[in-house]
Design a protein that fits this description.
- With 224 residues, the protein is α+β, with helices and mostly antiparallel strands.
- It has a domain at 67-212.
- The protein has helices spanning 31-43, 52-65, 67-74, 87-93, 137-143, 206-212; strands at residues 98-99, 104-107, 110-116, 120-129, 147-157, 160-168, 175-182, 190-198.
- The chain is globular.
Length: 224
């Protein structure tokens, strides 16, 4: 959880906008369009052309599995609505989550939390032993037509990283997405994914991230 909330205390540029609204439909890539884009991008990477198609087919599965998470995220940032300022407001907007308490719920195999640390946030958690991480929210947002650009990231070791992204999605105000990911190095190790967003619409800069965690090697360029 520490990794997921590492930007929660940052004071950013809040875009104040209030009231739950239905998320408008966004542009949606077809599987074929995604495969064309993905294989072209991987083929440009050294020594990846030979298995680009297989890798992209696997990635498409993680994209489709992330769709319900993306729906919940986007519900908080609909253009023309105010910021969600408390966990109750977050829950009211993210109505697709099966909320079981004032702070916890479930959605598509994910544990979902609402927190205020100190700003209102929505947090998605997944973990399993020896399994690859089955969700790719960054790519899923791009498939929806969003522009997703890195603000900063750092590696904690092989297969483990923290990253923060600026998301500009059609019909939505910009927001920051934080992603902690750990892919199990062995069959007996745990894999983890924690994805969170500041519902009050604060977007940190790279300087903010470095100030919050000065001991980490924050980079501007992040792997997708």
């Amino acid at each position: 959880m520490r990794a997921a909330l590492f930007v929660a205390s940052l004071a950013g540029l809040s875009l104040g906008l209030s009231a739950a609204a239905t998320t408008p439909a966004a542009a949606q890539e077809t599987q074929g369009q995604f495969m064309d884009r993905c294989t072209l991008e991987l083929a440009r990477t050294a020594n990846m052309a030979s298995y680009a198609e297989g890798a992209c087919a696997e990635k498409w599965i993680t994209v489709t599995r992330a769709n319900q998470m993306v729906d919940a995220l986007l519900s908080l940032f609909v253009a023309g609505t105010p910021s969600a300022l408390d966990p109750a407001d977050v829950q009211a907007r993210a109505s697709m989550v099966q909320w079981r308490s004032p702070s916890e719920g479930r959605l598509a195999g994910l544990n979902v939390e609402t927190t205020r640390t100190p700003t209102a946030r929505i947090v998605f958690n997944w973990s399993a032993t020896g399994e690859p991480v089955p969700y790719d929210p960054v790519e899923a947002l791009q498939v929806r037509g969003a522009t997703v650009e890195p603000i900063g990231c750092y590696a904690l070791g092989a297969g483990e990283s923290n990253s923060v992204w600026r998301v500009d999605a059609p019909g939505h105000v910009p927001f920051a997405l934080s992603v902690y990911r750990r892919d199990a190095p062995t069959a007996s190790a745990m894999s983890h994914l924690t994805v969170s967003a500041d519902a009050e619409r604060n977007i940190p800069t790279l300087g903010d991230l470095r100030a919050a965690e000065p001991g980490q090697d924050w980079m501007e360029t992040c792997p997708r």
